[in-house]
Amino acid sequence: QKRKLHLSPEQCSNFYADQYGKMFFPNLTAYMSSGPLVAMVLARHRAVSYWKELLGPSNTLKARRTHPHSLRAIYGTDDLRNALHGSLSISSAEKEIRFMFPEAILEPIPAGQRARDYLALHVKPTLLAGLTALCKEKPADPMTWLADWLIEHNPNKPRLQYQSTEE
């Protein structure tokens, strides 16, 4: 998801509540409320660690020395204005997503045996059917064909039932 918004100083104070009491807190909330920002949700395997790697160190000067190709090294201007924010953990990401996207529905991510059971019951049968159909069809663009097939045959897709009424 992506959303452009302009936070008030009070909203910034709430967002950065864990930083309250630190010397830079007033400057941080003033800067973050000084103009519009773009909030995004990154959805992928190991998203938090992947994003941290792309961001580089929070200190822009250190980022330029140690991670010159990181986003903060490229776009940051100083320690306060390091250009981008990244959640520190999955739990903080969930909290921050709820803050920036209050209408978003966050579902718990199954792990361990629950994840294996879910995959075996819901994902593998649909994927196997799609890959079998792909092999039979042999389309010119197999990736797009499979993506379209999976969308069309999504077992969780809402289905409308029409009842004919005779007058």
Automatic annotation (TrEMBL):
The keyword RNA-binding does not apply. Belongs to the NDK family. It is found in: Cell projection, Cilium. The lineage of its organism: Eukaryota, Metazoa, Chordata, Craniata, Vertebrata. InterPro entries: Dpy-30_motif, NDK-like_dom, NDK-like_dom_sf, Nucleoside_diP_kinase. Its main location: other. Residues 1-108 form the Nucleoside diphosphate kinase-like domain. One of its GO terms (biological process) is negative regulation of oxidative stress-induced intrinsic apoptotic signaling pathway. It comes from Merops nubicus. One of its GO terms (molecular function) is hydrolase activity. Keywords: Cell projection, Developmental protein, Hydrolase, Kinase, Transferase. This is Nucleoside diphosphate kinase homolog 5. SMART domains: NDK (SM00562). GO terms for cellular component: cilium. Pfam families: Dpy-30, NDK. It comes from the Eukaryota.
